[in-house]
Amino acid sequence: MAEEKNSDAGKSKQGVLERFGLWLAAWSEKWFPDAWVFALLGIVIVFAFGLLIGESPDKLATEGGKAFWVLIPFTMQMAFIIIGGYVLASTPAVYWLIQKVAGIPKTGRGAIAFVAFLSLVTSLISWGLSLIFSGLLVRELTRRVKGMDYRAAGAAAYLGLGAIWALGLSSSAPLMMATKGSIPPKLFAISGLIPLTQTLFIWENLWMIVALIAVSVPLAYYSAPKPERAKTAEYFNVTFDPIDTTIEPRQKPGEWLEYSPLLIILVGGLICWYLLDLFSKDPRGPLAVLDLNNYNLIFIAVGMLLHWRPKRFLKAVAQAVPATGGVLIQFPFYAVIFGMIVGTGINKWLADLFYSITTQGTYPLLVAAYSAILGVFIPSGGGKWVIEAPYVLQAAIQHQVNLGWVVVIYNASEALPNLLNPFWMLPLLGILHMKARDLVGYSVLQMMVHIPLVFFLCWLFAQWIPFVPPMK
User: Fold this and answer.
1) How many CB atoms lie within 10 A of CB 159?
2) CA-based angle 287:209:458, to the nearest 5?
3) 292 and 181 in contact (C-beta within 8 Å)?
4) Residue 7: pLDDT above 50?
5) Is the Cα torsion angle 353, 355, 356, 357 positive or negative in sign?
6) Is residue 18 part of a domain?
7) 345, 52 in Cβ contact below 8 A?
8) Distances (CA, A) of 114 to 55, 329, 351
9) Which H/E stretch holds residue 220?
10) Residue 382's pLDDT is what?
11) What are the pLDDT digits (tens) for 331-370?
């Protein structure tokens, strides 16, 4: 009898969490506008705020307009992260790997935990790769594992984007701050260059990664419904055939080079030669040259070589390009917000406010909370960073808080709202033929656990990392 009561209580608790998550997803789908609308609202809000603190409308409009194209290099870098991740994940070799690893888990809950772990690990390499790889893995698992809850599996595939991707190698903010050409000049004047050895490759960042993985994977396992309560892919009338990595036969003599690996070998080999030379000869070590440009070039080169033929490579690129639309149109408008903030007195006003209401000890918590809240309305790691960075880093300098750790705090906290906002889910939802409301119930459950853990670690590690003056 007691066991039955405990079982009923467990079912009731699970049902409440699931209903709450579904309610949040339905509410956001009904009331949240497109992410580009958030960028437009941001421009209006910053303009109005500038007027309130005494800035002239002419100054605000001029500085915003001048900055429209400032982020174009960074915009293209972000687009290539998406393209490179998809190109690599859709190569025959990587897809073969996906098929092999899909044969490992044997139970539904075990498969969900397995997807969660691989989603987290691959997100440290590339958030674009993580979404595509994890989505394709879930598709394979639906054909192999009986009793796997499709909603929980989809949320597990998305977990890397909501937990630790920003602590890994494709993180926008650290790569921008480590790439002088990507940093807007007015921001560089404040922060200088912040190499990856002060952000991604410090042991505090690595410990945060370990802690989030250790919490997220068991939570994904124990929160997943057992087979008798699972809603499988068949419940949603979703079925998948294996991915076709083949290309149509050559029909014309002029297409010979499109089907021959000759050009891929020559050009891909030249790129690899350049990269090996670059990484081996830099006196600062290989990590010092791992910036956005070189990172994307690695993915493109490896994708070319693994696709082997230009025809197959271009087919993968064509499939990836539609997913870059949001990045291409949104970032210039984020640049307008950036221009109005750093080109007027708004930057100094906010920096002084951040400094006045915090101490050296409480400043890390404020940055974490502010970044997480702003991430709900501006779902863009890189675009949001260029808005926050000027006054956040200026206040950090005044408080003598390590600038590299401030970037890590931003990374860890800005990923949290991804578990609620469906913006970054879109590529995965397309792969799985699902809606955001199907995933958010389980992703919000993860978010409820991540928030106190991330905030505590951000505050804890900030206490003993020494301040380093900006590197100009």
Assistant:
1) 32
2) 100
3) no
4) no
5) positive
6) no
7) no
8) 53, 35, 43
9) helix 203-223
10) 64
11) 788 888 878 887 888 877 877 787 788 888 899 998 898 8
Per-residue model confidence as pLDDT tens digits over 165-180: 999 987 878 888 887 8
Domain count, the chain: 1
Give the confidence band of 462 by pLDDT, cuts at 50, 70, 90.
Answer: very high
Residue 123 and residue 301: Cα distance in Å, rounded? 19
- As a whole number, mean pLDDT of residues 44-60 equals 91
CA-to-CA dists, residue 429 to 77, 88, 145, 436, angstroms? 23, 19, 20, 7
| Largest Cα span, the chain | 77
Measured CA to CA, the distance from residue 368 to residue 410 in angstroms comes to 6
Instruction: Write the DSSP string, 71-98.
Output: THHHHHHHHHHHHHHHHHHTSHHHHHHH
- Report residue 471: phi and psi, to 5°: -95, 105
Element (H, E) at 389: helix 381-399
Where do runs of H (alpha helix) occur along 90-192? 92-101, 108-123, 127-142, 150-163, 172-177, 185-191
Q: Which two tokens stand for residue 142?
A: 């639906």
Q: What is the dihedral angle through the alpha carbons of 184, 188, 191, 193, rounded to the nearest 10 degrees? A: 100
Cα–Cα distance for residue pair 455/87, rounded to 1 Å: 35
User: Which structural domain range is residue 358 located in?
Assistant: 31-462
Looking up tokens 């393209």 gives: 83
Give pLDDT, residue 6.
44
- For the chain, the first-to-last Cα distance in angstroms comes to 70
- Write down the pLDDT at residue 12: 42
Whether 471 is covered by a domain: the verdict is: no
Q: Would you state the structure tokens that stand for residue 457, as one six-digit string? A: 């670690």
User: Are the CB atoms for 130 and 165 separated by under 8 Å?
Assistant: yes
- Of the candidates 429, 327, 420, which has an alpha carbon nearest to the alpha carbon of residue 376? 420
Structure tokens, 360: 């050296």
Q: What is the dihedral of CA 407, 413, 416, 417, to 10 degrees?
A: -90
Cβ-proximal residues to 243 (8 Å cutoff; 6+ apart), any chain: 90, 95, 136
Is 196 part of a structural domain of the chain? yes
Within a domain: 2: no
3-state secondary structure labels for all residues of 325-378: HHHHHHHHHHHHHHHHHHCCCHHHHHHHHHHHCCCCCCHHHHHHHHHHHHHHHC
Q: What is the 3-state secondary structure (H, E, C) of 402-459?
A: CHHHHHHHHHHHHCHHHHCCCHHHHHHHHHHCCCHHHHHHHHHHHHHHHHHHHHHHHH
What is the rounded distance in angstroms from the CA atom of residue 336 to the CA atom of residue 39?
9
Tell me what percent of the residues of the chain surpass a pLDDT of 90. 31
Among 345, 85, 381, 109, CA closest to 224: 109
Helix H or strand E encompassing 45: helix 35-52
Q: What is the pTM of this model?
A: 0.76
